[in-house]
Structure prediction request, 806 residues.
Amino acid sequence: MGINQRNLDYIFPNNCRRKFASVDNKLTAKEILADAGIPVPETYAHIRYRSEIPKAFDLLSERKSFVIKPLRSMQGRGICVISDRKDDQFLTTRGRTLSAADVRMNIESILSGMHSYSGLPDQAFIEQYIVEHSAISMIHGTPAVSDIRLIIYKSKPIMAMLRIPCKASKGVSNLHAGGIGIGIDRKTGITSGGVQHDRPIERHPDTDQSLSGHEIPGWQDLIHKSTVINELFEMDYLGVDYVIDRDHGPLILEVNARPGLAIQLANKQGLLTAIHETVEGGAE
Amino acid sequence: MNRVLTASLFLFILAASAISYRIWHEGVRLDTIRPGIGYLMTMRFDTDLHGEETFVQAYLPEISPQLRILSEKTESSRLSYTIKNDEGLRIARWEADNLFGQESGVYESTVLINHVRYEIPDRLTLPDPIPENIVKYLHASDAIPSDDDELIAQASLLTNGHATLKGQIESLYNFVRDEIKLSGYETSLDALTALHWKEAHCGGKSRLLVGLLRAAGIPARLKGGFVLAPGSMDTHRLWVEVWINGYWVPFDPVENIFAEQRSNVLAFFNGDDSLFLHSENINFSYICKVKKWRVSPEELMSRANNTGYSAYSIWTVFRKAHISLNLLRILLLLPIAALIVLIARSVIGMATLGTFLPALVAVSFRDTGLIWGLLLLVTILFFSGLIRRVIDQFQMMHTARLAVVLTFVIFMILLCTHLAIDSNVLEPANISMFPIAIMTIQTERIFNMEQERGFAEALKVTLGTILLIICCYLVIDSDLLQALIFAFPELLLAVIGFYLVLGRWSGIRLLELKRFRWLLVN
Prediction:
């Protein structure tokens, strides 16, 4: 499937533009999911205006780790992960130490719209720091978090991939940044080989771990939860991003109304074939 | 998809019928506005004045159906001048009284001459009798003694055996072209001397040909003017016109022109005349400088309007509203450039900065030219990128940062204009038309892309954008396309039709084909 066909045949007919707002606004999306009983990372604070920053700092005073995110952004832009703090020194997963002023600056740049789709002013929110399940973190061997992208179409899981970070991607699991995409068998939850920069690879470049044969913990649970999401958001073609938390299992980070196409490379299968097998094939 | 196809088909048909209607019922002709190579001619004379009554007069290009004068002006600081028009032959006259010192006059015009080839039918004969107003072109004169026995004998020798008028003219023409050598120096020979010496310059050869034609009973005359070529000239040229089937048809044994109006032959006067006539007691010299001139659609349109171009024309509306023609050009060409961007993005799959940025920049390059435009673009992006890097250390907020870059972009544009005017290169001075805000936002985008996705990615997208700018420019710079759009703005309906089709095209993009190649193979 190419991007023209994705837009014309899947997104336009199935995802009404007016509903986009409910997934593009990550907090709304999380509320909808939480209301339906689907676990999401806990939200610590929501910052709409600069005047709310001090209040957010108060709320965070007891937290050693947290994640700052823009409300509307694409491809993981503008996310700042604080894994530890000593008084007013904040340690990021990328190994940088930030002062309270740096953190404040970070939030302000989110509010000014630096990472939003259109450059419009944005809001920020602060949520729970995820400690990844060891079954996955052992593949890349860093404290950074991987995520699982699952494409669901008309309440059927179509295709899944695990996105993990490496040194070349500077700790983020985004594929554009050089992260590794690994195909997942949608029935068993077991990984097959991966791709990096659109090229197939078999082993993790830093840890030399094989990329195939890993079972995603809680896979059946994850698939089961996913089947209601199309209905929840009233859109029939969605990409759902999960993290597997060490303690809480699969949590939904966000939902994407225009999921990318690289997942086909990670699974070495075209989306059209997968859709035919699961949805359209089943109907015949 | 079917609804879209129907809609676009409807648009294509609508455009086609509107254009056909305008061609057949309103008489719009692409010919009237088809661009071509014209010439910019500057004729300048210099003289000394001593206080007496003095005049200088000169023929101006003769008005004819084949000549389009796109612009024309006559200048002199102190001399008064008048233009007299006598059935297309025009004489400009500069006069001075009680003036002293150096004085000059300039005539400047941009001309476009239609190329016409005349076919002489074999059956064609001269009317008998020759019409009264034409008979004088058979008479003998001092320089062209067509009643001289020797000329008559030569003419009848040459025309003997040629039954048709065309054959006779051809035989006489070939004789003068081939048997009379072209002398390398200026001589003013009469027809007989040219025949005796078997060597003459353009004047002598032309007089001989006119003499032979007249001796054979074919009306002919001398024609004076210039054969235009880039450079400068200080003498005019003479050639021949023959009266055929009611038309005066040009022949030139020097330039090997047989029954043809060439697009570089500009006629000024008839007969054995001279270009300038002036008071006898003055120093006088003239020079005629010629440059090639690529005629722009605006000039063509303005010309078309002046000559009673009857069709409803948006150009006229714009002119009435005093809106710059440049704006109209941008408006009309932008949809074409947008179509190219659409193809590049949806069919090829190129990633570019901004959606229609390449189209906008390409259109603005029309003022600076492609090479200067690109140079300026790259320079401005590079330096504003440097500024952006410097202010990045201050950790300023987005809008304030943009404002700083914006101001520096304006500084750079002022500097470029200044440098350009100082060094007398005018093209880059037009940079003021450059879309400043666009440049600023692009600087920010490139910089952010470099931070987030790395230098290679940012460079790739920037180069892709520049490539697309070049493509857009080359397409919209086509004179024919511009003339077409100016004449038939209805074409834009068809362009919308293409948008519709491309907007519903769900095929794989070319670059996706490359990306997913190993998936597609399996």
